[in-house]
Structures are given as structure tokens and as C-alpha cells.
Amino acid sequence: MADTSPPRSERRLALFDASGFIFRAYHAIPPLTTSKGVPTNAVLGFTRMVLKALQDLKPTHVALAFDKSGRVERQKIDPTYKANRKAAPEDLTPQFPLIRKVGDVLNLASLDAEGWEADDVIGTLALQAKAEGFQVLVVTSDKDFMQIVDEDITLFDPAKNKRIGIADVQEKMGILPKQVRDFLALVGDAVDNVAKVPGVGDKTAVELLHQFGDVETLLARVEEVKKPKIRAALESHRESLARAKQLVTFNTGLPLGVKLEDLVRRAPDATRARDLFTELEFFALLRDLPAEEAPARPDVAPLATTTTLITTEAELKALADAAKAAGALTLVPAYEGMPFAAPLVGMGVALPDGSTRYVPLRHQQLGATQVPVAAFTAVMKDVIADAAVKKGGHDLKALTLVLAHEGLTLEGAQDDVELLSYLLNPSRREHALADLARERLRSELPALPASVEGKKGRPLADHGPEEVAAAYAVRADAARRMAPELWKELELGGLSELARTLELPLLPVLARMEREGVKLDVAELGRTSERVDVEVKTKEAECHQAAGHVFNLGSNPQLAQVLYEEQKLPILKRGKTGPSTDQEVLEKLAEEHNSVLARVLIEYRGLSKLKSTYLDTLPTLVAKDGRIHTTYHQAATATGRLSSSDPNLQNIPVRTELGREIRRAFVADAGHQLVSADYSQIELRLLAHIAEDPVLIDAFRNDEDIHSRTAAEVFGVAPKDVDREQRRVAKMVNFGIAYGLSAHGLSTRLGISQENARDVIERYFTRYAGIRQYLEDTVEKARKVGYVETLYGRRRLMGDLLSKNRAVAQAAERAAINMPIQGTAADLMKKAMLAVDAALREQKLKTRVLLQVHDELLFEAPDAEVEAVKALAVKSMASVAELKVPLKVDVGAGKSWADAH
């Protein structure tokens, strides 16, 4: 058998300090769990690091070195060795075997040695490999490994993306690599409980090693040490120093019984890796696995391998007839830019029989044979508008918009795999088609042109039809194949009704809203921007005055120096690069430590953010029609609420004057007004209904000021005697309870002691006993069944409730309490949008729904329809659900959004 090993000069062994990186990954990545509650942050961080290092270093041989659990040999030298080490956090312990599994599926050898540590395993293998002519790379961030660095053994620190050789050790430590163990013996190691020589710090240790070379020579000639205190310390700590050197020195002669040829790097076992990464919900990492190693699932037919180009009107008619006969059609449009204004370049098509087509329309390649756009719209108009022909794809809202731009109306939207996947797991960040295909079909989709993915490259239209046909047709086939399985899972989870009656019918409503857009008064916004620019500069000057000198407000290191070194304020939190200066820290410094600089800086940052996010950016988002067309995301939030982007309208402040000024720039066309319809305190009303609390229900039924009523209940006074401060406290409690507000949170927000906050909350629960019961029952049920749900069956998985990490579990409790309330509010808003849209169309009104923000709908109505629309909105929105309390809708109208709201 031929020897396939690399030549000796090209053999590179990468040795990973696995145990060290597990802890680094655990502390570097915030708590993370799967939907079933399995902690995975350390596993994810470790896996990312290994994959990145393998890609960068390209070793020919690889091994992962782990500490072996149990007593280590060094404890025979010193029983107190590592005595200070705390037990691993509870949510880290179950991740150790998972990390071993990762190594296994990546085909990386995992090594350890009874009684010894990863350091010793690495040291032994490094010297063994060096002797056999290897170049050795030790992947670690631990400086202890500098002791084995030489011409053939270097370190690689992935955190700094830096290699460390002999010269680097000398530059950093001031000594030779072989002296590192002597240095460590002199200065000790608090983490491993290795005692230092009293009075000997880093500088003194380096000086001693420059003079004497090593610990043994130093002790033999200790009388030559010039400083009396150091000399005396060395004399009195001879034994402990010698012992310390034994402890810090790697054992490089372990009988590991490992042959280096056993460590040859092999391709990952992609099938098992794909299964494990899917189980751990590492969906982004699936992209890094080689597709050719992953066979298709035996229960799923392979994706289409050939695609038919439709280049004649006759072929197009045959396609339309086939779709009508089959009663189904899956479409993936080829376009670039915003879908409401994007020319359709081509269309990927899949039919139920597994055949695929690509219809080229606007390719600019010389000589490209394609269907005229007019022929496409004429032939496909009826089948696209036929609700009896169910439509499938990924992001059918975008498809609806692209087709609308061509004058076509999409009906029969049913198999939107993005939306169906979202309903199954709303906490998942993305539901990209390529990711879903990897997980569900074990298939890699052909790459899209770079420009379509937002990268630099030739425009889509400059590609020939043959270049992109497979990319779009195979995507259509993938969506077609996944849809039945997704529907089956929705049926099993009791979610199919939500999809059919709420989410899918909402697609065309959102598409019409995006297409309609809202007019922006750029001149009005410009005037506001100029005024705010003056305010920003004023706040900047106030910050400099509070600091006593000019500094860069955008530089966190400079700000930290002013706050913590110059003004001696306490460091409340640290980030990766030093003391934190984030919003939470600044608020505490302002409120609890009376920092003028922190208070003004908060104001400066708030103004600057609004200026950059809205005042300066909104004009750049105005389309040719003078209107802004925001994009609504239906598959983005864990609670079911809609989000928006380009621009994100949800973050415009509601109650500040600047927020009103920004809204004033959103205006109606001539002869029209904007009408705002806003649910009043919908989440509190839902809390009353779901918790069945009689006091809260009574207050809403009597249309009382709910915050004054709560203040009266909590503080034991008559409603007419409630003062402003009591109402403020009650308002904070009312809105905070549904979000799991704690005594600490209330005390921080109100600036009162935790004891007072705890007392307020206890009095609240005494009067509103039904709410306390709801909170307790909801969390308890979620722990048992693993999810929470809205009144309409929308679910959110709550595996984090079982986390051993207290912070993660507490956050999950707050989410469990809030989701049924906020999620039901989202469901009601969507039902309201459907009801309002249907009423407008039924009455053949010219009014259009423009925006949905928080609990508000914004319409643009002709002047003659304003009063009718106000009445229609109140009636439609207030009657979408029969609750134990009335749904109240506030309406207003005006030439601008600010005037209407």
C-alpha cells in the first residue's frame, strides 16, 4: 500500500489545549441553550475556535488534549495543588461530553492521561513530533506553554490570531523559553495554588534569571543575591521553590501509546457532524461542513439535478397548464434590491412531480434566449391569481411584492417554508432556505450570485440564464419538498390553524402596506436635524465641562479613563477591553453616584443615536415616489410581534418631544389625512383576562384610570387622593409585572430601596392575588410541558427554564410570564389588521393601511373618508376578541403622524 503521508518537511501537528479553551469559551460566550434547555455556550465557542484554527493553520495532523478528571500526580508533590479551584459551574459540566462528541464527529483525536493534565499530554506529543521531524503548533492562550517553545515548536493564540515563537517569548517575558518554568516557580500561580517566593514579582524574577540562568543555580549561589530581603526569602523558601518548579514543569515523557500517524487529519464525518450540530442547534456551523460528505436522507428524494429553461411562450403555457392540473406551484423569484420596486430577472419553478423550470426574463447576456416579460405576465396571470392553485416558496411576501411590481396578483399563498419553520421555533434567529435545506434535506443549495447576497459582484442580470437557473430552480424544489414535513409538524404541535387563519392571510396585507409606503417631509426632517445637531454639540460641550477637559466621547477607553481614573467612580462592570461604559452602567453612575458626566453622556448618546438612525438616515431611504417603504418581518420575534427594518419604525420614541418631531415628518398626501388607531393598555387588559383577576377586571370594566386604581389599592388611599408619585410607582408596577419585574428592577427604575420596592410588590400581589397565581402557574406549567402559548395557540419553547445557570433560568421565567401576554397582543393586532383590511376592501374605501407600530395602526385616508375610517377602525379592532374586559381603541387624525397620534 502506497504511503500517502505528507513529506516530513510538510508535516504540521496542531495540538489543541482543549481543557483551557472550554473554560475560556464558557466565560466568553453568554449563556446559551437549545430549545430543549441543553446548555451549549462552551460547546459553541470551542467548536468555532477549533474550526477556525484548522482553517487558518491547515495542519496535517491534529489532536485535542484534555485534563483527566480525578486526582493528579502533582498533588503527590503538593497536596494543596489546585486546592483553590472551584468546581465547574453546573451548566458547564454537561457540556464536557458534548465537546468530546464534537471532536469525535470532526474526526479529531481526543487524548488524556490518567493522573496528568492536558499540558503534559501536549508537552509529550510536541517533543515526540519534533523528534520525528514535524513542525508543531500548540493552539493555546496559556503562557505556561511558552516553556516548550523552540525552533520547531511554536504557539498559536487564536484569541489574538498570533503565532508565538522564541523571539516573541523573549520580547514578552524578557527571558528564554527554557527559563519560563523557572520564572513561573519564582512568581507562583494563584490559579493553581502554586506558592510564590515572597517579594519576588515579575521584574525581580526576570532580573534573577538574567543573573543566574535557572532556579537550581540561583539556589546554589543564593549568597550572591544583592537585595537582603529577596536573599532571605529565597533562603527560607528553598524547598517550596524547588517544589514549585516541579509543579509548573511539564512532564514530557508520558507513555501515551499514541502513534503520530494515528493523528493524521481526516475530513469530518459530515453525516454525524450534521446530526450533532442540528441537535445542538448550531445551524450557522452547518454551512462549514462539506456537503459532499453528507448523503441525502433516505426518506427524502434528492433535489433536482437538471433544470429546464423555459424560452418560448408555448413552453410557458405548458408550464401554466401543468400547474393548474397539479393544483400547486412553487416559485422562487430572481431579483435584486427591494422587492416592491425590483424588476423580475427570472423565476425558479418547481412542480409537484419533482420537475423544475427556470424562466429567464431580463438577463442582459448577449444572445440570451428568454421569454418576453409581457408574455410571462399574460400567460402566468391567471394561474398566479388562482387561489385554487396553492403557491409555495420561501418568503412569499417578497414574492407577492415582486409579482405586484410586474402587475401580477398572487393568490393561494400556502407553503411559505420560512413562515412555517418560524411558527415551529420562533426563538430561532434565522429561517434561511439554505439552512433549512441543510437540516431537513441534508442538501447544499447551489450558490446565488454574490450581488444577490449583498456582496460585490456582477449584477444578477449580467449573468446568463444557464448560470443561475439551477440556483433558483433547486431552491424552489427544496421549498416544495420541505413544506409537507413542516405542515405535519405544525399539525402535531397544534399550530396549523394559526398558520392558516392568521399568519398566511396576513402576507398580502403586509405586502400591500410595504408597497404603499408612507410619505416623508424631508424638509421638515432637515429642520429638526439642524436643531438636534446644535443640541448634540451642546451636550458634547457639557460632557467636556463635566470632565474638566476635551476628550473623544466615542472612545470607550478615553471615557473609562475619565470616569474611573480621573473622577474615581466605582467600576461596576467590566467588558472584554476594560471597564464598561454601557447604558446600564452610566444610568447607575448617574442615579446612584450622582455623576453629572454620566447623566449628560446618556442624553448625548440618546440624541446622537436618534440623529444618526432617523434624522440623517430616513431621507436616504425615500424611494422615487417620495415615500418610505419599510420592510416588515413576520418571522423574526419570539413573541409573534412584527418587526421592521429600513427603517426600524419600532424604535422611534413614543413619548418624547423629539420622537414627536420625527413623527411630524411622516405626512399625508394632499387631500388626505393620517389616521392613527391605537390599542389602549392592551397588555394590561390581556393580563386581567388571562389571570382572571377580579380587581383588575373591575377597573377596566368601569373604565377607571388603571394606574390610579392600582395606586389606591397598593397604598390604601381613595382614588381621588392618589398623588403623582404614587401613580408613577403604580404605573411602573403595572407595566413591569407582566415582564417579571423584580424588587431589584423596580428599585433601580424608581430610585427607591430594594426593601421599599419589595414592599410595594408584596402589597400589589396582596390586592391582585389572581396575578400572583397566574405568574406562578404559568412558570410551573412551562417547566412541565416545555413551552408557553398565547390564547390562539402560538408557542414558544422554554427549555431554558431547566437551566442550571441561575441567570439563564430567571430570564426564562420572565420570558415565560411575558410571552402569553405579549404574544396574544401580537395575535390580536394581526387579527385586527386582517379585520380592518377586509372592512376597507368590503366597503370599497380608498383608505390604505400604511404602518403597524407597537399597538398602533396608521392609515392614509382621503379627507372625505376620515370619520368613517375612524369608526371602522374602532369597531374592527375592538371586536376582534371577546374578553372579560373591553378592548379600547384610541383614534386620531391629522396631516402628520404626530398630529394623528
Attribute tags:
901 residues, alpha/beta, Rossmann fold, Nucleotidyltransferase, domain 5, Taq DNA Polymerase, Chain T, domain 4, 5 domains, 6-stranded mixed beta sheet, 34 helices, 48% helix, 12% strand, disordered N terminus
Describe the structure.
The chain has 901 residues and is of the alpha/beta class. It has five domains: 8-172 and 250-263, Rossmann fold (3-Layer(aba) Sandwich), CATH 3.40.50; 304-504, Ribonuclease H-like superfamily/Ribonuclease H (Nucleotidyltransferase, domain 5), CATH 3.30.420.10; 519-628, Taq DNA Polymerase, Chain T, domain 4 (Up-down Bundle); 683-821, 5' to 3' exonuclease, C-terminal subdomain (DNA polymerase, domain 1, Orthogonal Bundle), CATH 1.10.150; 825-900, Alpha-Beta Plaits. Helices cover 48% and strands 12% of the residues. It has 34 helices and 25 strands. A six-stranded mixed beta sheet has the order 3-2-1-4-5-6, with helices on both faces. A six-stranded mixed beta sheet has the order 7-10-9-8-11-12.
Q: Report the radius of gyration as a whole number of Å.
A: 33 Å
Largest sheet: 6 strands, mixed
Low-confidence sequence ranges: 1-9, 291-299
Number of helices: 34
- The computed structural class is alpha/beta
CATH superfamily of the largest domain: Ribonuclease H-like superfamily/Ribonuclease H
The coarse silhouette is: globular
Give average pLDDT, whole number. 91
Can you tell me the CATH topology of the largest domain?
Nucleotidyltransferase, domain 5
CATH architecture descriptor text of the largest domain: 2-Layer Sandwich
Number of structurally distinct domains = 5
Assembly state here? single chain
CATH class of the largest domain: Alpha Beta
Separation, N- and C-terminal Cα atoms: 81 Å
Strand content: 5-15%
